[in-house]
Amino acid sequence: MSSNYRNFRNNVPWLILFLEAVFIVLFLFSKDYSSRTSISYPAFQDVNHMVIFGFGFFLTFLKRYGFSSTGFNLLIVVLGVQCSMLVENLLDFLLQRYMDCGLKRITKATVSTTAVVISTGAVLGKANPVQLILMTVVEIIFFHISRWINHTFLQIPDSIGMMHVHMFGAYFGLAVSSRFSEPSPRSEKNASTSKSDLLSVLGILFLWVFWPSFNSVLATDKHKAIYNTYFALAVSAVTACILSVLTTKDGKFRMSDIRSAVLAGGVTVGYASHSIKYPWIAMILGLLASAITILGSYCSQRCLNPALKIHDTSGVHYTFGLPGVLGALAHVVLLVIENWTNLPRLGSLALIYVGAFCLTISVALLTGLITGLILNLKLFKTTTVSKYFDDQFYWEFPHLAVGF
Amino acid sequence: MSSNYRNFRNNVPWLILFLEAVFIVLFLFSKDYSSRTSISYPAFQDVNHMVIFGFGFFLTFLKRYGFSSTGFNLLIVVLGVQCSMLVENLLDFLLQRYMDCGLKRITKATVSTTAVVISTGAVLGKANPVQLILMTVVEIIFFHISRWINHTFLQIPDSIGMMHVHMFGAYFGLAVSSRFSEPSPRSEKNASTSKSDLLSVLGILFLWVFWPSFNSVLATDKHKAIYNTYFALAVSAVTACILSVLTTKDGKFRMSDIRSAVLAGGVTVGYASHSIKYPWIAMILGLLASAITILGSYCSQRCLNPALKIHDTSGVHYTFGLPGVLGALAHVVLLVIENWTNLPRLGSLALIYVGAFCLTISVALLTGLITGLILNLKLFKTTTVSKYFDDQFYWEFPHLAVGF
Amino acid sequence: MSSNYRNFRNNVPWLILFLEAVFIVLFLFSKDYSSRTSISYPAFQDVNHMVIFGFGFFLTFLKRYGFSSTGFNLLIVVLGVQCSMLVENLLDFLLQRYMDCGLKRITKATVSTTAVVISTGAVLGKANPVQLILMTVVEIIFFHISRWINHTFLQIPDSIGMMHVHMFGAYFGLAVSSRFSEPSPRSEKNASTSKSDLLSVLGILFLWVFWPSFNSVLATDKHKAIYNTYFALAVSAVTACILSVLTTKDGKFRMSDIRSAVLAGGVTVGYASHSIKYPWIAMILGLLASAITILGSYCSQRCLNPALKIHDTSGVHYTFGLPGVLGALAHVVLLVIENWTNLPRLGSLALIYVGAFCLTISVALLTGLITGLILNLKLFKTTTVSKYFDDQFYWEFPHLAVGF
Question: Which residue range or ranges hold the Ammonium transporter AmtB-like domain (chains A, B, C) (predicted)?
Fold first, then answer.
């Protein structure tokens, strides 16, 4: 089977090269970008930094998978951003829409690519680069289609539609992951050491600090979005610590809980961050988000995943999926409270937001499942279970004997 | 004694939860924040980044205390910022003061929390999370009171009063630390490895790069503050290298010296950075700051600390305390030189600045001592000396056997 | 020989102190800086962050040289920036030129210092601190002279002349390195471990994310520069992965290839980033840059370096030199294509840009060679080949026995 991959490997670079060549040719046909921009460079930079650096190191918790976590993340993000821009261009062209300027287009593409990065977390260590790249292209296309349906048929504003990115990424990733063979439960490679966990903390803190940028980059009222996201994150961090101590046997902190729950507030508050009027609402959302994450983590690992035979390497279900669902619902509840005097508007608002939410999850699960099936055709499925979670299968180590 | 903590631990999360609930309830009563802001988001982001990420990794030099250094730092900062905002709101309400807008309030709260982060450095590895959290709340309150006295009775502008944060944090931390049992001098956990030192370098370089943001965020003439801080830091870095070589036995560099002295210039120049007219003055301050730090480090470790029975884990006395004192004095000297033609004004200026300095130090030492006494009541004192500096006492390690 | 260094070491700090004192005295004579600035603080901050933090960790790939890589990098950068500002001040004074304001001057000085940081990569682990500091001062002076000749006699705009920094740094470094004794090919210290490589990935990702800031900081059309640099970097990253797989024996990724090639697009597109009209041109440049880097890496290591007896520790020749050359030539080609209707202007344009390119390389090689000769006088040459690539020769390790 290993030789299977070796034969296969000879085609890998040609596949990527072909993809990149197609991208370059397609960019030939894209319209000129204006140099005026409605997004500031630091705002784009923050999002770019989060996706490349923050998520790259967020995923380094596996003890033997640091190179792949950071390296493949870079590869996927740059391909995803290019692909996302081309799909957006195509949609703009087909629908004769107004076109965003340069920087705004890259920023939106980078935010969309977050879906892929999150999905990667579910198949981390199990998918080979070709599978990851195929997944990237397919997921980006379907995420754009889902956003387009939301925008066109349900009149969801784009800044809200974009926030479905966490939920879409998580459920797409879970559906893909359900088609992969499960790793052996005794696999000693599917674990972290304190060194790799500390590198992962580096990524977590990075994401934590920059999350207000993520929520505000496309928001209309940026200052409110930043302010509310900060408070949601702050309470999330505190709640993560509390619940981590409460759920462990002898009252210790557990790093994996904190990794999942510390960002939950930011994900949850994403939908409504620009419209929440008082910080205490954001704080309560942060508290609930963190609680649902730790609870979800407990349930997923003990009941749900074994029952559904889903292996979710970095726990994207409870890290991004559940807080996303909570955020979408909380957004509807907040809208209901705000518009309760205007019943007809209230009904239609609630309906379309719940509709958008259901649609996004359904599209994610369905297309994820199909993608998972395709990726596990014999053609692509080359990584045996024994080679899961291992850098050495993909990377050359001239220094193997020394200090690994 | 360990079982003592286990019993105690069951109450830890409820304590934090109670505190967080109180914070949320108090935020219910805080006035609405305007969305207009006088501080730019990147400026706030830089300070936030420094405190969460920079200081988090700055403190990872202990070889077995990386999780606690970064994790507890996050917990303390988010609680400290919320507490600081509430105290500020209360003072605004009581004194019928004008209220800052949202972002500026978080930024000021983050800068105030630096005091707590610095104090943490003195008791790093010795205080348990509950002690740290209690210390956070108490210190934030007293720092605000000290600033308020300075502002109201001595007419110190708030941007200067805020710069006492390093000095206050250092001396409060030292006073608290003096009440903790000293670790065994042969403790092998109270040491760094080259790996943990390298992670600490990451934090140092981060803080070094962002220090101009810290000094300029509340300054009136931001560009001058940035310019002068950069030069003071540059000369500090050079001087740290020089003196490190001069003070070691065989002329080698010592990382702990560089860790302490490289930031000294930034701390010292903080008070006067917006008013220094020529870069060479900032450069000389940087040189003196670095020199006083290395000298202070030599004296503290050999004479002062053993005599006073104070154990200062990350050397906050010479890293932040002494450069802060030097900066406060240098600020007075610069004011004297500037106003020497106007004798009456000169006298009163010198008097109030020296008064503010003495007051801040006294409040820090006194309240720190009391806090230290309270924290070492039998109720809270649960970490035995043998469990100092050890992540395993607070964190679950499912991967204990592997590669720790 | 080791005692040779010990004797020598006693003079090291005095040398640096003397240098720093000279700098401070010279700053006494520099004119006042205006507080108005034409460069924003975040732009300066990004470049500063890249040089101190990004390059510092970029160079940590050697397994026993992490302290020196990051520590000496900081020392060199701060000395280089001060030296560069003084040389610029002197030139401004001698030529009665208009003077930039404060922040712009530090920014330009930081960009110039990149040349030194790149050169350091070539002699990494072989040069001692004194050699590095001397090299810094000499290289900064010659780089300014080269830029001044380009600007005065060839009318090259300063934003283009500044982009020669990569090429100048690389060839200066190579020339210096050719005068150092080669390390033993079996030296086990001249290698990386997966841990040190992962820290280096941290630096690489940092540089990758911030490279658009570097190319845009002095550009006239900042948004175009950012946009084009992003695409060149994206395609570079993809191409680096492709070619890395193609050139290894069994189709695996190689981290050292990715380290060299991932930034190549940013270096190459630097000259023309503000004037490229369509992103696909930047993408093709990124592809070519990455290809030339991997090809260059293959040729250098196998043919060129052994023949010329040059040892290039971090491969600056193909990482920064070749992409720089490609960029300079591509810039000329793009100018030719743009101006092909205006033949006389075309001829003169091509001539001066090719002239500037040849001049810069010649100055770099010649002055580098001379510097290399001087640095290897018996006076300075104190590091024996057996002590190459070793932190322990320069740093005190109190924790030697534990976990190194």
Answer: 20-379
Burial class (CB in 10 A: 0-12, 13-18, 19+), C248: middle
Rounded to an integer, the average pLDDT of C32-44 is 74
Measured between CB atoms, does C186 come within 8 Å of chain B?
Answer: no
DSSP, collapsed to helix, strand or coil, labels residue B90 as helix
The answer to whether B151 and B158 have CB atoms below 8 angstroms apart is yes
Neighbours of chain C (3+ CB pairs under 8 A): A, B
**Spatial separation of the C-alpha atoms in residues A337 and A346, rounded to whole Å:** 9
Selected residues 90-119 of chain B with any CB under 8 Å from a CB in chain A: 102-103, 106
The complex scores an ipTM of 0.93
Confidence of residue B403 (pLDDT cuts 50, 70, 90): very low
CATH code reported for the domain at B44-393: 1.10.3430.10
Q: Under an 8 A CB cutoff, do A234 and B81 touch?
A: yes
pLDDT tens string C291-343: 999 999 988 888 877 788 888 999 999 999 999 999 999 999 999 998 888 88
* Annotated domain spans of chain A: 44-391
Contacting chains of A (3 CB pairs or more, <8 Å) are: B, C
Closest CB from B197, B205, B221 relative to C56 = B205
CA B230 and chain centroid, separation: 20
Mutation for testing the C interface, residue in B280, B287, B294, B404 having most C CBs under 10 Å? B280
* DSSP assignment of C247-270: HSTTS-B-HHHHHHHTTHHHHHHT
- pLDDT (tens digit per residue) in C59-99: 999 989 999 999 999 999 999 999 999 999 898 888 887 77
Contact between residue A238 and residue A64 where contact means Cβ atoms under 8 Å apart: no
Rounded to an integer, what distance in angstroms lies between the CA atom of residue B119 and that of residue B206?
Answer: 20
The answer to whether A65 touches A211, Cβ cutoff 8 Å, is no
C42-393 has CATH 1.10.3430.10 classification: yes
C219-237 mean pLDDT: 93
Please give the structure tokens belonging to residue B91. 């003072």
Chain C hits for B242, CB-CB cut-off 8 Å, are 13, 16-17, 20
B149 has a chain C CB within 8 A of its CB = no
